[in-house]
Design a protein that fits this description.
The protein is an alpha/beta fold. 35% of the residues lie in helices and 11% in strands.
């Protein structure tokens, strides 16, 4: 297939063709005066096409895109799993889809009830005292929680706490969120097992520590077995423990962040709880906190009084509002639908199958790829392409070759503490048949690296767009179409 198979709409333009029909005006109408600065000096350069050509163009574009509904999407740490269609049905109900946040509270009681009980569900799942749905995404939730921790320390007159400790295997958003919240990021090293090095943690923790940000299981898919001691080390110096909830889908129903000693947590509803995501959003990153931090939650919060639901603005210690209105309601609604349809036992099964699928893939693929941490993983695992790199084939080359088989590549070159990393997360929603197909693809690519490396180095071969000059694309992007002749 080549780029000429589906020509761009601008190249299909023919003068006089239209995809609309507007009836002529047969009555006299008053023409409003328009400021000349808003009147075009020459016609806009717009394509002229028929409705049929227009539909075919956008249908063709949709077929070029890759999504979870079209193929396996094993992005490690991003949890691109199936989005149940019942979520979409509920989100499109008139009583949810056709309301406005400025309506009187008494006219949106159903929406407020959903948000209220979603908060209660997330409190139960995480072991937190109170939850806010305001943050728009995971990183936004990180920043919001850090601002609350900062407000807590400042209220106590503890102004010296300027450091946030972050493991070297952490998500890249962690140090970014800490910086935006006004803190200095300090790295905590991993030990030979891929877990937090307790000796290094003890070396960097002190009275200037505001918080430790931690993902458990971590980005290597490994559970921090010393989490209670980690919590004690941080709490003993007066710091707070923050839970990056991106990997919660590995432990739901088995252990809660609150039980591990965490003081604050964010959740990715657009990931763990099946809200669609990618392509810029929308997302949802609610935060949960302990009773000690709850007064600092952004306002308003949603409360239930005398059998009715309302917004609570009287929160004098709150950090303020962090998003217009009350969060991304559509994603919150989908998450609540998922939680209610799965139930407590269903969410526990989610964790079981996510862990089972990941370990099945890991054990089959370690036949050909280096496995830096050979212990059982949780929901994801990280391979290394070092062995293939010695034969002249990079992890990037293998990722490109995967595209030829109709799968999306795993996350590559992350986490940074694994050379030539391939980070794979199958999620609980994929069948064994799909996993076996992916295994065969990966094993075949590994064989090609040994026997026919050029086919991997030059991949992809069967996609609409072939191998690009990625450096040039990043430094000199073409952001607009310029196919018209002046």
């Amino acid at each position: 297939m080549n780029s000429k198979t589906f020509p761009l709409i601008f190249e299909r333009s023919n003068p006089g063709r239209k995809s609309y029909s507007i009836p002529s005006i047969d009555t006299e109408q008053e023409v409003n005066d328009i400021d000349p600065i808003y009147i075009r000096k020459k016609p806009a350069r717009l394509p002229e096409v028929s409705e049929l050509d227009l539909i075919r163009h956008y249908t063709a574009l949709s077929k070029r895109n890759f999504g979870i509904d079209s193929g396996f999407y094993p992005l490690g740490s991003c949890t691109m799993k199936y989005n149940p269609k019942i979520n979409e049905d509920v989100a499109r109900l008139d009583g949810f889809a056709n309301i406005h946040p400025n309506q009187p509270v008494k006219t949106v009681q159903g929406a407020l009830e959903v948000m209220f009980y979603l908060q209660k569900s997330l409190e139960a799942i995480t072991g937190m005292h109170e939850v806010s749905l305001q943050p728009a995404a995971g990183a936004h939730g990180e920043w919001t929680a850090l601002m609350m921790i900062r407000a807590f320390h400042e209220e106590n007159g503890d102004l010296k706490r300027t450091k946030v400790l972050i493991p070297d295997s952490a998500h890249g958003t962690n140090p970014a969120s800490a910086t935006v919240a006004g803190f200095e990021s300090v790295t905590v090293k991993s030990n030979e097992n891929g877990l937090v090095d307790l000796d290094d943690l003890k070396r960097v923790v002190d009275d200037n520590t505001a918080a430790l940000m931690l993902t458990n299981p971590n980005t290597l898919g490994l559970f921090e077995t010393e989490i209670i001691e980690i919590a004690n080390i941080v709490h003993d110096v007066g710091g707070k423990l923050y839970y990056d909830g991106a990997n919660l889908n590995a432990i739901m129903g088995y252990v809660r962040p609150g039980d591990m000693g965490f003081d604050a947590v964010h959740l990715n509803l657009h990931k763990t709880f099946t809200g669609p995501h990618g392509g810029g959003g929308p997302g949802s990153g609610p935060i949960g906190v302990t009773k000690e931090l709850a007064p600092f939650l952004p306002k308003p919060t949603i409360v239930k009084r005398n059998g009715a639901y309302d917004f609570e603005y009287n929160r004098p210690r709150a950090i303020g509002r962090v998003k217009p209105y009350y969060g991304n309601f559509g994603i919150n609604l989908r998450a609540y639908t998922y939680i209610r349809s799965m139930g407590a036992e269903g969410l526990k099964k989610v964790s079981e199958y996510a862990v089972l699928n990941a370990n099945y893939l890991m054990r089959r693929l370690e036949e050909e790829f280096e496995l830096p941490y050979p212990v059982h993983c949780k929901h994801e695992f990280v391979l290394s392409g070092r062995k293939q790199k010695q034969l002249g084939v990079r992890t990037l080359d293998m990722a490109k070759r995967i595209l030829d088989y109709g799968f999306h590549p795993p996350t590559i070159y992350f986490p940074l503490n694994v050379e030539e990393a391939l980070m794979i997360e199958p999620t609980e929603t994929e069948s064994k048949d799909t996993l076996d197909e992916f295994i065969e693809v990966m094993l075949e690519i590994a064989r090609d690296v040994r026997e026919n490396p050029e086919i991997v180095q030059d991949a992809p071969h069967y996609t609409v767009v072939k191998r690009m000059d990625e450096t040039r694309a990043a430094r000199k992007p073409v952001l607009k179409y310029d196919g018209f002749n002046e």
